[in-house]
Amino acid sequence: TSYLETKSIGRNIAYYPVCESTQTIASEKASEQAPHGTVIITEQQTAGRGRLERPWDSSANKGIWMSVIIRPEISPQFAAQFTLVSAVAITLAIEDLTDCSPAIKWPNDLLINGKKVTGILTELQADMDRVQAIIIGIGVNVNQDLEAFDESIQSIATSLKMESGQEVNRAELVAKILFYLEKYADMYVENGFEPIKLLWESYNCTIGKRIRANMLRETVEGVAMGITNDGVLELKLDNGEIRGIYSADIHLMNK
Ligand code: BTN
């Protein structure tokens, strides 16, 4: 069993047996100058937050619920791709330690057999021209059995144990995720998104599919053509128009 192999990410860790949300704690700590690589991790959240103001079921002490503060020297316009970078890092870690191979649903949900196993929530603290901190919230369903999930999500959520039939050592998986997160975050800052985009594409299950994209003001349908170097999803609508989708909730129409 091997544990933390990183230089900076995870070298400063705050562990809570239970808390409301690691994301909220991490935001506060980031404003209070917590160093690059700080990790907030808990066994159980009483008010876990998902994307689009949704609750995130993290009541069981059988998952990985953590938030990572990174301070890359990039301009705020490049921050959004960190969400795709994180999805790749977590996918590789899961592949290394289990016999599961997750598929990435744009922008960053990890699915196994069509059900969600991991959610990522990234939040940005920035000035006009400089990123102060990116807070990457990671929720992985690891050792839950079906009963651990709220009934309302039992048909759309799964865990690594449910998919592989085996318990996974959570500490080892945390260390692996942080290892790949450091590797690909560094690569992104040095070389940009292109080398990572190829990896993201090789694991994705969105491109080529017919999808419905729910956005704040409208819902559109079409075929996902690809992602740009900025991580924007290009959708071909039925009238032939190509639309760039920056942020949306995506529904895959044909699995
Ligand atoms: C999503 O898919 O909607 C994102 C879910 C993100 C959940 C994680 S669990 C650790 C961190 N703390 C939170 O309150 N949320 C994130």
Describe the structure.
Keywords: ATP-binding, Biotin, DNA-binding, Ligase, Nucleotide-binding, Repressor, Transcription, Transcription regulation. Residues 1-189 form the BPL/LPL catalytic domain. One of its GO terms (biological process) is regulation of DNA-templated transcription. Belongs to the biotin--protein ligase family. The chain is α+β, with helices and mostly antiparallel strands. The protein folds into two domains: 13-203, BirA Bifunctional Protein, domain 2, CATH 3.30.930; 210-252, SH3 type barrels. It has five helices and twelve strands. Strands 1-2-3-7-6-5-4 form a seven-stranded mixed β-sheet, sandwiched between helices. It has a five-stranded antiparallel β-sheet with strand order 11-10-9-8-12, with no helix packed on it. Helix 2 (82-97) crosses helix 5. The radius of gyration is 17 Å and the shape is globular. The structure holds biotin. Biotin (BTN) binds at residues 21-23, 45, 48-51, 54, 56, 58, 65-67, 109, 119-121, 137-139. Biotin binds at residues 21-23, 45, 48-51, 54, 56, 58, 65-67, 109, 119-121, 137-139.
